[in-house]
Amino acid sequence: MKFKTLIILAVAAFGLTACSDAWLEEKKLDPNRPSEVSMEVLLPSAQASTGMNHGDVLPRLTCIFMQQMTGTDRQSLAHNRYAQIGEGDFNTPWGNAYAGGLYDLKLIMDLADASGATAYGGIAKIMTAMELGLLTDHFGDIPYTEAFTGADNLKPAYDTQEDIYTTIFTLLADGKADLAAPSSVSPGGDDLIHGGDLAAWMATADALKARCLNHLSKTSQYDGDSVIAACDDALAAGAYATIGYESALNQNPWYQFTVIDRAGYITQYGTMYDMMTASSDPRIDLYRSADSLELPAYGSATSALPLVTPFELYFIKAEAQMVGGDATGARESLEDAIESHMTWLGVDATDITTYVDSLQATTDLELIMNEKYVAMFASTEAWTDWRRTGYPSISAPAGANLSDIPRRMPYPEGEYLYNADNVPMPLTADPDDKFGVTTTYRLWWDS
């Protein structure tokens, strides 16, 4: 009887304990999903997301739009005539930004403010400016001011593109100021772009400022002198930023698409290739493999993905000088741009000289922009330049699904599902409207 009583008491005690799961709290923790993440972990995560957005869906489509590449199979073939491109295609880059990179960067900024880690905060602000620039130049108005609040606001309003550009310039200035201030801790190997070199990040901020100021060339806010000054600041500081790829688990996004995932979908033919052939351009074999399916310099497994480069800055400076009436200065900057790009690719010095010497004698905006079009291969900047300047002179292909070349991207499907009241374009909009062919939903700086 005593034994039974002890069993009953033990069971009762266990039952009372089982009513509380406090003893399980330690066991509930998932080491793969920590509730708090350090800045050292968040920074490379944000940079990986940035790399995907700068080397995946968006540049792949814009390179086809700009006839730098040609879709030859499956959906990529349809993309040549602007077909089979829908809202669902943009869920990935939008998610990479908002649920990935931009959210991680917001967390870094909050942690940096709380701990005095101005080095991390400054980098996060500059990277946020870079990502906002990429998004707004594709979609126009985007959420920012009300974004990243989680359950407190699941339906953030959209900021106008003009306001986003103001935010970009503020973030770049504030980021540089943070980097110049003392910091409680600084990044090192966790910074996949500059390895913790804060001076290099300041130069990157200057380069992004020059790029974004130049994007305003069709607006009343454009100031060519400011563009040139920003270029000079960035060039003097040695601005150059890439994301590197090193192993089978960390491959260049172009390689992942053209070799691993969708081999044969895209070939390196089109208007740009024809232009390069006509000018005996020594970069052809670096741009396209013998079968034209791969990108040797830009799309090998370990090719670095350019974010800002000296050659882009020289082209921006040449354009601003040309617009300002300084043809002589523009010519010098143009030649510097070409030499910088070809040297970066590893073109022989003799071939560089031969190519530069063969350029047309008269310097004009079309020459500058056509040369930049070739040099900015695999970058979305070529599309932005065409929308601003009309160069290169290209037209929509026969049988296109739109009446002209796209000038913007439609908003992602996920926004229509979960934030439809705030999306500044109805889902039922005409395709020409959705892609900015008409002026109804054109980007602010492209109006």
Write structural notes for this entry:
With 447 residues, the chain is mainly α. It has a domain at 38-196 and 403-442: Serine Threonine Protein Phosphatase 5, Tetratricopeptide repeat. Helices cover 54% and strands 3% of the residues. It has 20 helices and six strands. It has a two-stranded antiparallel ribbon with strand order 1-5. Strands 2-3 form a two-stranded antiparallel ribbon. The chain is globular and about 55 Å long. The protein starts with a helix and ends in a 13-residue tail after the last helix. The model is unreliable at 1-20 (pLDDT under 50).
**Total helix count?**
20
Span of the ends, CA to CA:
91 Å
Rg: 25 Å
**Strand fraction band?**
under 5%
Q: Which CATH top level class of the domain at 38-196 and 403-442 fits? A: Mainly Alpha
Task: State the assembly state of the protein chains.
Answer: single chain
**Secondary structure: number of strands:** 6
CATH architecture of the domain at 38-196 and 403-442: Alpha Horseshoe
Major beta sheet, strand line-up: 1-5
Gross morphology is globular
The largest β sheet comes out as: 2 strands, antiparallel
Averaged pLDDT = 93
List the helices and strands in order: HHHHEHHHEEHHHEHEHHEHHHHHHH
Secondary structure class reads mainly alpha
Pick out the low-confidence regions: 1-20
Helix content: 40-55%
Highlighted features:
mainly alpha, two-stranded antiparallel sheet, 20 helices, globular, two-stranded antiparallel ribbon, 447 residues, Serine Threonine Protein Phosphatase 5, Tetratricopeptide repeat
